[in-house]
Design goal:
By secondary structure, the protein is of the alpha+beta class. The protein contains nine helices and 14 strands. Belongs to the class-IV pyridoxal-phosphate-dependent aminotransferase family.
Length: 278
């Protein structure tokens, strides 16, 4: 289901984006993916806030928030698929050599069966060096670390490398052995009643699902921390999880070919915490 920012629906199978749109030619744009359950979008305001923040980092025009909200409503009011929707908001710089008018739309899609299976069964991941070091985001803002841009070629290449190594996901690391994030997810490590995630100062994207889980955990008396995590710490943790809007809370059962401690019960507890927010 596809909705444009002018408040109209469009046929997702018909030609729409121009071939000279800079989002297509150069990945010059930003996006967000929002989970919708039973017609209710989760963390819509934080996602729209992050869309605007990413756009500002890339010197894009400020997204028309009201237009995106209208497009979201239009998709959801006309959705006829499953009870869960992956709702993508896309905003590009528009046509190369044009008048500067950006391209924007909202696109609703079913959740992939693979992702739903991983939610239940967990997954195997590998660690891959992302070439990022602490302080790089501040020293080199033009690298757009922490912006959710359309330039995902490196992320997709990392996932293909994981498949070549017999895994399905990636934990990006710094060259010095600190944990960053997944290509499309935030990492959370659990020890006892403490949840820890790496800081955004490392140049990673602050996660909306991670924030929702941390809110719920704090309310129920868990400790939450945002601080650096060493890769070696993951092997000794009670649980390692990759979280995102679409994958929700997914446990990592194997890392670099090594089985991690069984976190099945812990996973169920974290899922209940996350769902309690909604």
């Amino acid at each position: 289901m596809l909705a444009l920012l002018d408040g109209t629906l469009a046929d997702p199978d018909a030609p729409l984006v121009r071939v000279d749109d800079l989002g297509l030619l150069r990945g010059d744009g930003v996006f967000e993916t929002i989970l919708v359950v039973d017609g209710k979008p989760r963390e819509l305001d934080p996602h729209l806030d992050r869309l605007a923040r990413s756009a500002a980092m890339m010197d894009l025009p400020e997204p028309d928030r009201a237009a995106f909200e209208r497009a979201v409503s239009l998709v959801l009011d006309n959705w006829t698929g499953g009870r869960e929707v992956a709702l993508k908001l896309v905003f590009t710089r528009g046509v190369e050599g044009g008048d500067g008018t950006p391209t924007g739309f909202a696109l609703g899609m079913d959740i992939p069966a693979k992702v739903i299976g991983q939610r239940a069964d967990g997954l195997a991941a590998v660690t891959l060096d992302r070439g990022i070091e602490p302080g790089l985001a501040e020293r080199a803002p033009w690298l757009l670390l922490g912006a959710k841009s359309l330039s995902y070629a490196v992320n997709m290449a990392a996932l293909r490398e994981a498949e070549r190594r017999g895994a399905s996901e990636v934990v990006f690391t710094t060259s010095s052995g600190s944990v960053l994030e997944g290509p499309t997810s935030t990492l959370i490590m659990v020890r006892g009643r403490t949840l820890t995630t790496p800081p955004s100062t490392l140049g990673i994207l602050p996660g909306t699902t991670q924030a929702a889980l941390f809110r719920a955990a704090t309310r129920e008396g868990w400790a939450v921390r945002v601080e650096p995590i060493a890769v070696d710490d993951l092997y000794e943790a009670d649980g390692v999880f990759l979280v995102s809007s679409v994958r929700k809370i997914t446990r990592v059962h194997t890392l670099d070919g090594k089985s991690l401690p069984d976190s099945t019960e812990l996973h169920e507890e974290l899922v209940d915490l996350y769902e309690s927010e909604y």
